[in-house]
Design a protein that fits this description.
It contains one helix and twelve strands, in the order αββββββββββββ. With 171 residues, it is mainly β. The strands form three sheets. Strands 1-2-3-4 form a four-stranded antiparallel beta sheet, with no helix packed on it. A four-stranded antiparallel beta sheet has the order 5-6-7-8, with no helix packed on it. A four-stranded antiparallel beta sheet has the order 9-10-11-12, with no helix packed on it. β3 and β4 form a beta hairpin.
């Protein structure tokens, strides 16, 4: 029995290794994208980064000024979003299905901006959900339904923001 179990595990492991080689995966979404991109921009401290495959560009957040910039594969930086609600930005996520860039603002909330022009779709002040709880909004993930799950680094809280605008405490 023990030999059969070990044999079955070995076959399963070998099959997984072989099948993993069948999956088409590319580390570099653009064959012409350099392995390293250098850019300079005064007064920003890049905190988050997200790739926009539809436009072949990177978004960079700034922990110091809150602006969101675009960095092209050739190293050009251009301010993309300047919003008074963004005082220091952290995590970024591109939501291609809904053409949104989700932006974490460390002091209080999450915003969504149009991928094509940077116009604000909404900004939600998550600090209002738990008054008195310290807030440092850090990162976000998006599920296939478009819900955003947002972390708070200074409290054991995960917030949820639906695509229709409802904000709640998820955990």
């Amino acid at each position: 029995m023990k030999q059969v179990l070990i044999h079955n595990r070995f076959i399963f492991l070998a099959a997984m290794i072989l099948l993993s080689g069948c999956y088409k995966y590319s580390v570099d979404p653009l064959p012409s994208t350099p392995l390293q991109i250098n850019f300079t921009q005064p007064d920003i401290f890049p905190e988050g980064i997200a790739y926009d495959p539809g436009h072949y560009r990177f978004f960079v957040s700034s922990g110091s000024v809150g602006d969101i910039g675009i960095v092209t594969p050739d190293g050009l930086y251009k301010t993309f979003i300047k919003d008074k609600n963004l005082t220091g930005t952290n995590g970024l996520k591109v939501d291609e299905d809904r053409q949104r860039l989700w932006v974490c603002n460390r002091d209080n909330g999450i915003g969504a901006y149009n991928l094509n022009g940077g116009a604000r779709i909404f900004f939600t002040d998550l600090s209002l959900l738990l008054p008195g709880v310290p807030v440092f909004i850090n990162d976000v993930v998006i599920n296939p339904q478009g819900n955003a799950y947002v972390t708070n680094n200074v409290a054991p809280v995960i917030y949820k923001r639906t695509p229709t605008g409802k904000a709640s405490v998820f955990f």
